[in-house]
Amino acid sequence: MPKAILFDLDNTLIDFMRFKKETAKAAAREMKRKGLPDTEANIYRAIFKAYDRYGIEYQKTFYRVVKKYRLEVGQAERIQQAAIIAYLKRKFEVLRPYPSVKPALKRLKKRFRLGIVTDAPRNKAWQRLVLTGLDDMFEFVVTPDDAGKKKPHKAPFRMALEKLGLEPKEVLFVGDNPGRDMEGAKRMGMGACLAEYGMGKRWKIGKARPDYRIRKFGDLEKVIA
């Protein structure tokens, strides 16, 4: 049985992709309403094209979407800011933990040391944790801003182990990404549990086979038992 459990954040503890899809829909709807000359569906697709090209955490997504229409500068800024506001309003409505995450974490916290290793920027990671009410569940959060590298590099996993003062074999890592999470954890000698509910169709199981798999977060306690 492990002495500590480390978690990925997005798509493991919180339903990140639902949040991104819903906020993109809200932004696209508002951009269309404010006069962007295209269909709502095309605008939505353009938002995700920008995410694919520049990264899901990219901060100038709506600027990139609006820019290609070559609108008058004031009108372009108006549409961009309207999209940002619509995005933020929807964000506060839909960003939530997966079902059973909060009660399960409360139980796990009584028995194990808990931490997070995420590829989200430090400010975004803490914002999401505070917004979802999970910020007091963990001893620490390791981000690329702290470790200098993203998973599956050893640096963030090593930093987490140093904070715990434990050996890799004493730690279980739970994440949704086979490449970043499972490969990184296994490379360090940790136990690895794949959160299949967060995978969607995006990832395929790679060379680093997980030790365990869960189809919903509540199954984690069964795995540990």
The CATH topology annotation of the largest domain reads as Rossmann fold
Sheet having the most strands: 6 strands, parallel
- Morphology: elongated
Strand fraction band? 5-15%
Q: What's the β-strand tally?
A: 6
User: Which architecture of the largest domain does the CATH hierarchy give at level 2?
Assistant: 3-Layer(aba) Sandwich
Count of separate structural domains:
2
Query: Number of helix segments?
Result: 10
SSE order, one letter for each helix or strand = EHHHHHEHEHHEHEEH
The average pLDDT score comes to 95
Supply the CATH class of the largest domain.
Answer: Alpha Beta
Helicity, in percent?
40-55%
**Computed CA radius of gyration, to the nearest angstrom:** 19 Å
Low-confidence stretches: none
> Could you give the order of strands across the largest sheet?
3-2-1-4-5-6
| Class by SSE composition | alpha/beta
Distance between the termini: 8 Å
CATH superfamily of the largest domain: HAD superfamily/HAD-like
Write up this protein:
With 225 residues, this protein is an alpha/beta fold. It has ten helices and six strands. It folds into two domains: 4-15 and 96-224, Rossmann fold (3-Layer(aba) Sandwich); 17-94, Orthogonal Bundle (DNA polymerase, domain 1). The protein has a six-stranded parallel β-sheet with strand order 3-2-1-4-5-6. Helix 9 (178-188) links the parallel strand 4 and strand 5. The termini are close together.
Short description:
With 225 residues, the chain is of the alpha/beta class. It has ten helices and six strands, in the order E-H-H-H-H-H-E-H-E-H-H-E-H-E-E-H. It folds into two domains: 141 residues, HAD superfamily/HAD-like (Rossmann fold), CATH 3.40.50; 78 residues, DNA polymerase, domain 1.
